[in-house]
Amino acid sequence: MYSEKIEKELARLGVKAGDKIKVVSGNAIEEGILMPRPEIGDNGILVIKRKDGYNVGIRFEGTKVEKTEENGNKASPPKKTYKEKLPSHLPKVKILYTGGTIGSKTDYLTGGVNVLVSSSELIGEIPELADIADIDFIEAMRIFSEDMTYKEWKVIAEKIADAFSSGARGVIITIGTDTMHYASAAISFMLQNLNGPVIFTGAQRSPDRGSSDAFMNLICSARIASESDIAEVGICMHQSSSDDACSFIRGTKARKMHTTKRDVFKPINNSPIASVSHDGRISYISDYAKMKDEPKKVVALTGYEPKVALIKITPNSDPTILDFYAEKGYKGIILEGTGMGHTAVLTQHKEYSWLESIKGAISKGMIIGMTSQCIYGRTNSRVYATARILSNAGVVYCNDILPEVAFVKLGFLLGNYKPEEARRLLDKNLRGEITERSEYDWFE
Amino acid sequence: MKNPDYYEKLGFKCGLEIHQRLATSHKLFCRCSASLAEDGKIGEIERVQRAVVGELGVLDVSTAFESRKKRRFIYNIFRKSSCLVDLDEEPPMGLSEEALGIALLIASSLNAKIPDEIEPMRKEVVDGSDPSAFQRSMLVATDGKLLTNGRYINIPTIFLEEESSGIESSGSDAVNYNLDRLGIPLVEIDTDATISTPSEAKELAMRIGLILRLTGRVQRGIGSIRQDVNISIKGGTRVELKGFQEVDTMDEIIDREIERQLKLIEIRESLSRKAARVHEPKALTEIFQDSDAKIIKESIESGAIVLGFRLEGFKGFLGREVNPGRRLGSEISDYAKMAGVKGLIHSDENLDSYRFRPEELQAIRKKLDIKEDDAFILIAAKENVCKYAAELAKERAEYSLVGVPSETRGVDSRAGITRFLRPIPGGSRMYPETDAIPVEVNKKEYETIKSNKVDPDAIRSRLMKEIKNEQLAEQMLWSRDLQLYTEIVQKTGAKPATVASIILERFKEMKRSGINIESLHYDILIKIFSLFSSGSITRLGAEEIIRELPQSEKGIYSIIERKRLKKLSGDSLKELARSALAAEGDRNKVRKELMSKYRVSIDGEELNSILESMRV
Q: Are A245 and A105 in a shared domain?
């Protein structure tokens, strides 16, 4: 938006973004299409798109603006039209769009963000998909992943269950990468009797760029959905910085490990389930749940207790934060402890000992789980005295679950089971979130 | 040399685009070193790119062309001079203020105006030279002008942008790029198309090059400046000639391009009169099952197919020369090569050299329905490559009936010709760089920059005053070593004429005799000249050190000691002269003897005045 004064003046002149205008300032004349003002920078400066395609900024004050053509962009060819999708005998794959970079195309004229809206448009952009599966695309929602809550996870889980009921062989969910691993964990727990691949994918670069990772991510996801016999939820994104292969990582063992790179998701305390090359070869890397011949109906168990928090332990961290959560009615806390799962209890500084607060919370019926901020490796309640004391006080040591996954799992358990059952299941493996042994190359 | 009227009659239109890398410490949008890597690569990645629709919903013709080639791109990664920004794995950092400052200095030296706000843009590139598939570019100045040939030539636009990656190697299915060059700040200067003759184009290019060099803040060396020339004539169309490494032959190459366009127009006239046309390609593979033609035989054995098509009424035209050694057939062949074939065979060539059997030729003629006045083209390659090559060749052949295709052509300076690179890009490849902040330009600062703008005429008069030799001063103005000269004169107080003479004359001789002067750092040269200036060594001594250093492992002082270069002067020279004069008696003989013995460590003039002052 331009400054109020400019917007007013433009309105008076009947000029809006997209119109061709002439701006005269002194003896200089600039002509072009008025662009919307970016959110950043000086909103007293008009941005004009010149004939050569370059934008240029001209301070509005002291200039004379004149409209030369209504909607100056009219002359450009109409938006691409896509051929109607042809009938296909390939396996049915549903793509659920929920938002995020992968479906976004900036409309540089209005400043708005458009999304891919139909199967035919998607196939028009990525024609390879039509040779892999019979794609059905639906927009389930359109939100940033950081805005996503358990309420959206429920919707997604239900839509996936519906898709399988109506004959889909696999389901792809496109979603923002920021909280993709929370969502993949939640959906892993929510889906019962899963008998096909459920693939979360996204993009680190939007598909309006020739270098976008969206294309290969979607193509590889479609391969898994259409051809693999995996009956698990996972994340399918770039395996490295190169456009040569994607990894399919278990949904309860993936974590966003970089802010911007393409190979942003890494398996933690696990190997990828499979690798899919850009030309479609699937190589299976580790054990996974396979599709069954006589499956039960896929159902979504969507109860969820949102009053669960994840607390990171640091030096000087104040244990009374637990009292605060207890007062707020929280039912469960996951601690991201130091090392093998520690927090101060034997300290000479009484005010920093967590023991009393933990005991107090547990006595109020809260479930306290312990994970590690090391991310890699297992927690252990037997090696150090600190952990033994915490464990004896009732803290559940969550083995090698990722802190975020333990957090999601506890909300899921508390939303669907009685507290004592939830507590019992917290450190039991349900969806591959806990492993029995640690392999050498999981951490390199 | 043709006169200006000749060009005016042709409707000659010509404009320049000059690209100059800036000498900054960092790249334009990240904090990587802006120098090319000297160490080896630390890794590589492989990417593919797609054509995407531009801002206004149009897929650009050159973009689509590159994208059809479906090549893989491999990028070499270097420790200090490439980072995640270059790899398109991290958003850009802030614009380099150093680069912007230099760009504005250049803009002011070209008398241009600056906008209130600079808007960083993305310019789409799909030849893979940028992993992000776009180049960041911004308009930094408009409405410049430069006096050349007694009149002003307009410079409508000046851009600041990112350099592309350098090509390490290129094949039909993959291109290997080096990321160290990517993102180095580059200024693009565009003139309007009012240049009236090829020699004026050359003069203007030289003058802009001079101004850039005189800023002292641009990179030097091979590839650091590139000139593109846009040319059209009446009945032709705009063609962009890319990659002049040096301006020396620019006028000749422009003349060649005019010749080519004229020939193509001629060909069009003749072909249109004959109602010539190009037919669809047909499969001819089976004709060559037992062929003796080596090229075709080997191709078929490795799984190739053969396609051929009829060019009705084209007989003799494919062999028409359009430039020395270049025929219409070569122009068509260049298009086919873009699909990844090595070349094509056409009927205006000497077909005997391919060793076709008569019955094969007959079969081709029959299958393609070739009449007396027709020509044909054959292409052998793997099926998809062959089909695409045939399609491109056919497109180009058909264009012979339209005239001059709008092309970007690469300059081959050695052969003095140009070759087709790709269709000329349209204007629909720009969209805003939403990851970078618009830059507000301080107009007051620009006024300060303007007061320091480069003025070649002022520098010429300064040099004249200092060097006092018109020829040397003019040479110095155009020399790449002007900055070195200026620094030496300012920092050491050495006599300007001597410095100029050593740099312009002695350096040239030394370079010719294979001495690597370039390896001497500025600081070392300044040290040598200050030793000269303070009287520790003579001029010949200084020259001797400069000659020795590049091929010696020793430092300056060891060379002075070993070669006895320490200047003999004052009392010690007097003492030397006195004893020699006592022994010999004849001043001239003494001078001769001492000068031949101590040539490099005695200043002749000083010796003269000492001898003069002595009684025999």
A: yes
CATH number of the domain enclosing A338: 3.40.50.40
CB A377 within 8 A of CB A437: no
Give the pLDDT band (50/70/90) at residue A178. very high
Whether the predicted pLDDT of A190 surpasses 60: yes
- A82 within some domain: no
H, E, C per residue of B463-474: HHHHHCCHHHHH
Same domain, A24 and A59: yes
Residue with tokens 């480069």: B454
Shortest alpha-carbon distance between residue A271 and chain B (Å): 22
Q: State ipTM.
A: 0.91
> Which H or E element spans position A390?
helix A385-392
Tell me, yes or no, whether A105 and A49 share the same domain. no
- The phi and psi torsions of B564 (rounded to 5 degrees) equal 50, 55
Structurally, chain A folds into a number of domains equal to: 3
- By the 10 Å C-beta count (0-12 exposed, 13-18 middle, 19+ buried), B274 is classed as middle
Mean pLDDT lowest among A23-37, B60-74, B248-262:
B60-74
Q: Is the predicted pLDDT of residue B610 greater than 90, yes or no? A: no
Q: Domain coordinates of chain B in residue numbers?
A: 4-34+48-271, 277-400, 455-562, 570-613
| B174/A contact by beta carbon, under 8 A | no
Work out the pLDDT band at B189, boundaries 50, 70, 90. very high
The reply to whether A319 falls in a domain is yes
Any domain includes A86: no
Question: Where a domain ends, among A300, A334, A368?
Answer: A300
Please indicate whether, in this complex, the C-beta atoms of A45 and B124 are within 8 angstroms of each other. no
Instruction: Please check whether residues A293 and A317 belong to one and the same domain.
Output: no
Q: Is the dihedral of CA A200, A202, A204, A210 positive or negative?
A: positive
Give me the CATH code for the B277-400 domain, please: 3.30.1360.30
Residues A287 and A316 in one domain: no
Contacts A53 to B, Cβ<8 Å: 55, 121, 123, 427-430
Question: Do A50 and A133 belong to one domain?
Answer: no
Structure tokens at A324: 């605060």
CA distance B292 to B357: 7
Calpha distance A18→A11 (Å, rounded): 13
Domain match, A155 and A243 both: yes
**B116-154: string of b/e by CB count within 10 Å (b at 16+)?**
bbbbbbbbbbbbbbbbbbbbbbbbbbbbbbbebeeeebb
**Which of A19, A134, A136, A178 is an active site residue?**
A178
Task: Indicate the range of A19-28, A72-81, B399-408 predicted with least confidence.
Answer: A72-81
Query: In chain A, which residue's Cα lies nearest the Cα of B46?
Result: A242
Do the domain assignments include residue A352?
A: yes
Nearest CA in chain A to B128: A211
A294 lies in the same domain as A324 = no
| Chain B residue whose CA is closest to A240 | B45
Q: Is A152 helix (H, G, I), strand (E, B) or coil?
A: helix
3-state secondary structure of A428: coil
The domain that contains A287 carries what CATH number? 3.40.50.1170
Domain housing A358: 308-426
Q: Please give the sequence-ordered ranges of beta strands (E in DSSP) within B52-116, or none if there are none.
A: 72-77
Residue range A340-346: average pLDDT? 96
Catalytic site residue A101?
A: yes
pLDDT digits (tens, 9 = 90+) for B435-467: 888 999 988 889 999 999 999 999 999 999 999
Give me the DSSP letters along B422-490. EEPP-S--EEE-TTS--EE--HHHHHHHHHT---HHHHHHHHHHHH--HHHHHHHHH-TTHHHHHHHHH
Give the pLDDT score at B596. 84
Q: Strand, helix or coil at A233?
A: strand
